[in-house]
Queue: 2 jobs
Job 1
Amino acid sequence: MSRSGLLVAFVACLAVLAGCSGAPVGDHTQTQLRTYALPMHAVNHDDANHTVRVSIHAHGDARSDENVTLAPGERQRVTTLTSTNADAGTTYRIEARLDDERVARNVTVTEAVAQRGTTATLVVTDSGGLRLDVAASS
């Protein structure tokens, strides 16, 4: 038998011994990518117009940096914070400024947070103050 014939026979024997049937080895099932979302709104409880500067960062990168102008009693969507099941969760740094008021908070979006119906709400209070509420729906 030639050298190449011996090599072919040897590889065939290894395949039989390993139980190889030509199918790929290992688990090749694919996990479906899912996105988890946490909506963020701004609301004005004061009786005057206000413009709030909202900056959002994730992984050290700026994701959003904008002014949100709110009329008295107005509520508007600012953005949607997202993460996927490929991540262990995405942490966002939210900073908001209104005149001399400043609030900053880290918010992590995970599957559990999204399943609870959690939302982030930037609130201009009735006294013109500023706060950031993050809460699950009841």
Job 2
Amino acid sequence: MKKFDFTINGNKYSVDIKEIEDDMATIHVNGTEYSVEVHQENKKPVKTPKLVRESIVRQPGEGRIEKKQSAGGFPVESPLPGSIFKLKVKVGDTVAKGDSLLILEAMKMENEVLADQGGVIKEIKVREGDAVLQNDLLLVIE
């Protein structure tokens, strides 16, 4: 269990504590086994200190994420959190349903975001390298 080295009156002792049950312990001193009685002091339990913090007073609007809103059109949202790896379209491009719009990197995989409907790209709300969350607005098809 535990090993200790003691020097008493110039003599060295190697003590191995094998097991302790209640007030009896089995120990080996320089290879000889002994059964000894353990006398323990009655110590008061140490209390764990509690962290006391002041209340946080939030300002109006603090901690809210404002999403970019679009003025009409069909919104294309992020299917999962990740980062924009590559944009395959630009504003003014015409796309058909099923066309690849951009590549989203998530969990070390490249995922293509496809157009759910055809139209013209009206707005692109992200750039390559941007981090996005699920359901963030990526672009708008008109």
